[in-house]
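Dear V.,

Thank you for sending over the compound details. I've combined the ligand you provided, zinc ion, with the protein sequence from our construct and run the structure prediction for the complex. I'm sharing the raw inputs here so there's no ambiguity about protonation or stereochemistry in the SMILES, which I know was a concern on your side last time.
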Amino acid sequence: MVPSIVMIVNFFKRGKHGCALVASLVLLLSSTHVFSASRHTKPADVIKKTTARIAIVIDDIGYQSSDQLLLNIDAPLSYAVLPHTPLGYRYALQATKNNRDVLIHLPMQADHNNHLLGSGALTSKMNKVEYQQTLLSAMEDIPFAIGINNHMGSLLTRMEQPMRWTMEVLQQHNMFFLDSKTTRHSKVEQLAKQFGVTSLNRNIFLDHSREKRHMEHQFQRLINIAQNYGSAIGIGHPYKETYELLQVKLPQLQKLGIEVVPISVLLTPNAGLVNNRKAPKDNIEQRARSESE
Ligand SMILES: [Zn+2]
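Below is the predicted structure of the protein with zinc ion bound, written out as structure tokens.
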């Protein structure tokens, strides 16, 4: 029931938009359905159906009308939406109405290529008030979000003070942090624990290269992690090649006993899993990735 509680709290704390009520109720019903369905199912069926889970988050939503292609995929993908972008609010609302989880894709200062950060970026030069106001402004812009993940951020996520300020706000709003892991030295998990904030780690970037063989290889790695450890989190981007990969690969997962789930389902990683060992650090792609992520 954690996702439901998260959504209710988010609504009451930040529900400035009337449509947020509808969105929250839709999500509440959706997530309740996930859990209530299992109550009427035999234990053996539950085990069979939840052998492994994959969550796929599509980053960088908000700038291009072609993002719609990924939003239309008939599977419970999750969407990370850039704040203060021309199409961000509209696509976040659309995804929410379609029972999809929405995250804020929060621009955070990187070591390189900071001209790609976009609007509403968090930087190391900000004081606490500026920093937290920028974060709150992103949350007001995308009021349907149940968590955040970092856009770029190889510099900021390894800095203790900005991560403390981030966790303070997330704790107050009962939101989680999906660490995109753009640096192996990220302090997200450590600081999240201190503040009692739930954090998750990205396992695989699906489309760092859009070359077909590379993407298929990455998808297979995602499957392997899910099968070995019970769950896996992949991040993709709104590229045509990513859409084509998912259209082919997603229908094949059911035969492998793998379920695609909204990211919120993995906030309770032990629920219903037969093999719920936590993936060791070396199974998380540690290489710092291109700052375009
Ligand atoms: Zn990004």
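A first observation: Strands lie at 52-61, 78-81, 102-108, 147-152, 176-179, 199-201, 204-205, 231-236, 258-260.

Warm regards,
I. M.
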